DNA sequence: CCCTTTCTGGAGTGGTGATTCCATTCTGTG
DNA sequence: CACAGAATGGAATCACCACTCCAGAAAGGG
C-alpha cells in the first residue's frame, strides 16, 4: 500500500546506495519535515526546524536531498501515505452505502478531533504548492489519483454488482466525492466547524444513494443516519 | 457589492486621512499585490515585486500598510470582490435550475480559459493562509461567507416559491455547492483538466434537481445539458 | 582487518527580502 | 499663500535562511 517516497527521477543527490542506518535517517527527515510542513506550511518550515525535529545535523538533509524542493516532493508522497492510512481499513472496502456513510463519519470525526485545524494534509500541501512548479504539481496529482482510485474501486464494485444504475458513472462519482471532501474540509478549516464538510459529503452521498437500484422509499432525502 | 478592503481593526499605520491621491496609490498597491499573490503565491510575492508592479517606491507600501500581513489582509478582501464580480450577473439570480446550470457553465468556462492554472483566487489564498493566523483565517472565512450568502439566497428564493421540497435545506445545499466548486477547482488545477470540477458541480446540481418539486421524468440523472 | 564508501557534526557564508530612515515634494485648507 | 500634514524616492539596515565545506566517525564488503 505504501508508495516509495523517493522522488521519481534525479532526486537524492547521493548514490543510490543507502545504508540501513542511512535509510532510517532519511526516513526520520521526511517524517519530521512532513509533520512540520503539514501542520504549519511549507514556506513556513525552515530547514533548521526540520533538522532539530529529526535530530540530525544540517548537512544530513543535503546529504539525502538535493535541495528543499526535492525534500518537499518526498514529503508529498509521505503525506499521501499518511492520509490513505488514516482512512483504513474502511477506505479499502467502500462498496456499499453503509460503508460510504461510515467512511464519511470517520473523516468527519478525524477533523472534529483536531478542531478542524490543519485541514487535510494532502489538501493543504496542494493549496500551497499547486502553482509551485510542475514537479510538485505532478506529485500532488499522483497522490490524489491514488486516493481517487480507492474511492472509484468501491463504487465500481457496486456498479458491477448491479447496485448502481447503468447510467451512474463510478469515476465521476469518485471525483465528486473527493472534491466534496476537499472543498468541505477547506471551508470547515476556515470556520473551525465541521458543518461545511458534513453538508458537502452528505449531499454527494445522497446523490449516490439516489443512483442505487434499491432506493427504498423514494424520498429524495436518502437514508441519512440522523 | 464591494466590501472595503481595509483591514478591520488597527491596520493602516497612517492616520485615517487619505488624500485622493493617497487613496489611488493605496488601491494600486492592493491591486498589484492581489494580482501577484493570486497568480503565484503570497509567500512567493516579494514586496519589491509589488513595488514594481504598482509603480511606487518601497516606502509607500509601509506608508499605507503596517506590514506584509496587513497588506495580505487587504488583498483577501480585494480578492473576494474580484471573485464575486467575475461571477456576475448570474450569481445574483441563482433562483432556478437553469440559472444554476448556467452558473456552472460560467465558472467552468472561467477555469478552462485559464487552462485551469491558478485555481480560484480566494481558494488559493485560503489554501495558503488557512493556518497563517486567526486574522487571515477570519478574513478568508468572511470572504467565503459573502459567497455562500449569494448562493444561499438563490436557493432560498426557490425554496420559498415552493420549487424545492420542504425537506431541502438551502443553507446546506449552498455549502455543498461551494465546497464542490472549491474542491473541484483544486483537483482541476492539479490535473490541468476541468473534469473534476465538472463532476463535482454536476453531481451536486443533480442532487439539488432531485429535490425540486417538479422533477420531470423520475430518472436519477436529472436534466443535464448534454 | 583494511579500505572504500557512506554518514555525521557543526561552523560558516552568500544572497535575499522585509522593513526603516530621512530628505524632499506635493495637497489641501484656513 | 503659508503651513501642517500627507505622499514619495531611494539608499541603507538587518535578520534570516537555504545551502556549503571539511574533517572525522561508522559501516560493510572483500
From TrEMBL, chains A, B:
Residue ranges of the annotated DNA-binding region, renumbered to this chain: 46-65
Source superkingdom: Bacteria
Keywords assigned: DNA-binding, Transcription, Transcription regulation
SUPFAM superfamilies, alphabetized: Homeodomain-like (SSF46689), Tetracyclin repressor-like, C-terminal domain (SSF48498)
Residues in HTH tetR-type domain copies: 23-83
Pfam families, A to Z: TetR_C_13, TetR_N
Name of the featured protein: TetR/AcrR family transcriptional regulator
Amino acid at each position: 500500500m505504501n508508495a516509495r517516497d523517493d522522488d521519481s527521477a534525479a532526486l537524492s543527490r547521493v548514490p543510490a546506495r543507502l545504508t540501513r542506518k542511512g535509510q532510517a535517517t532519511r526516513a526520520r527527515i521526511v517524517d519530521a519535515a512532513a509533520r512540520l510542513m503539514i501542520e504549519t506550511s511549507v514556506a513556513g518550515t525552515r530547514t533548521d526546524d526540520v533538522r532539530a525535529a529529526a535530530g540530525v545535523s544540517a548537512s544530513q538533509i543535503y546529504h539525502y536531498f538535493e535541495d528543499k524542493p526535492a525534500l518537499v516532493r518526498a514529503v508529498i508522497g509521505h503525506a499521501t501515505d499518511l492520509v490513505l492510512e488514516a482512512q483504513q481499513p474502511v477506505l479499502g472496502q467502500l462498496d456499499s452505502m453503509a460503508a460510504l456513510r461510515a467512511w464519511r463519519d470517520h473523516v468527519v470525526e478525524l477533523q472534529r478531533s483536531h478542531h478542524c485545524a490543519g485541514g487535510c494534509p494532502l489538501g493543504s500541501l496542494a493549496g500551497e504548492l499547486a502553482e509551485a512548479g510542475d514537479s510538485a504539481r505532478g506529485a500532488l496529482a499522483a497522490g490524489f489519483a491514488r486516493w481517487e482510485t480507492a474511492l472509484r474501486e468501491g463504487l465500481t464494485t457496486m456498479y458491477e454488482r448491479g447496485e448502481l444504475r447503468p447510467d451512474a458513472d463510478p469515476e465521476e462519482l469518485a471525483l465528486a466525492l473527493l472534491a466534496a471532501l476537499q472543498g468541505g474540509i477547506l471551508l470547515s478549516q476556515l470556520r473551525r466547524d465541521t458543518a461545511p464538510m458534513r453538508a458537502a459529503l452528505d449531499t454527494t452521498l445522497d446523490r449516490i444513494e439516489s443512483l442505487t437500484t434499491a432506493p427504498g422509499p423514494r424520498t429524495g432525502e436518502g437514508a441519512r443516519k440522523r
